[in-house]
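Aim 2, interim progress: modelling of the adenosine-5'-diphosphate-bound target.
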Amino acid sequence: GPSVAFDAVVKRYPGGTVAVDGVSVAIAAGGFVALVGASGSGKSTLLKTVNRLVEPSAGRVLIDGDPVDTIEPHRLRRRIGYIFQNVGLFPHMTVAENIAIGLRLEGERRNDVRVGDLLDLVDLPRDLAERMPEALSGGQRQRVGVARALATEPGLMLMDEPFGALDPVTREQLGAAVRGLHDTLGLTTIMVTHDMAEALLLADRVLVMQAGRIVADATPRVLLAGE
Ligand code: ADP
Ligand code: ADP
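Predicted structure of the complex, ligand included:
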């Protein structure tokens, strides 16, 4: 996957809240970075500047050196997979249709989507393809969300509390699956979580946010050794 760089990024929301207060950090191609911090510290806002769900008030975000606002929106969406809590599958569509929509929205034909391969990638049995989302467990639904995010073969995965609504065991299984996908597909991954233990387990690098700033930046090895 590509590198991602934040260059003096500031986000001030209408009303005056400064959610991101001057963040400069470079994430290496193929890295797995966790953004950790208390609720309201600006993690989601910073993440969303990468896929332009949020436009910075100042500063720039670059993917492989290109400012994101110079990348064609259609191309940007294809290059970035985005997963959040309760991915929101369409309830009236089968698993296969939910996965295919990830690509169809980008103008591909349904037959071009290798639904079976994508189910394999997220360790779901292929015979789930024709089920409706309501017939799946919460963990299975999140896996379908991951499969949908992978349909456009993105190099970059953005995840915002992807396992937040799941029980601890399912959470751990899904974490391992996401780490496995990162390793196998060579994805650059940025994961927002308020769970430091999860960050230490999964990420190569942990960025701690507080009041819109990055206040710590270290590998799990260093953090676990204690300062
Ligand atoms: P986190 O992901 O760490 O919980 P957020 O980025 O969601 O933090 O929020 C950072 C701050 O910005 C909070 O004070 C939050 O209330 C505020 N905020 C987030 N989104 C908006 C928005 N769309 N409009 C106004 N304020 C927002
Ligand atoms: P998250 O922390 O993952 O952004 P939230 O539940 O805090 O989730 O926010 C849900 C939605 O509401 C998000 O789109 C966020 O940008 C927006 N939001 C959060 N805080 C505020 C706020 N103070 N004013 C307006 N919108 C907000």
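The radius of gyration is 17 Å. The first helix runs from residue 43 to 48.
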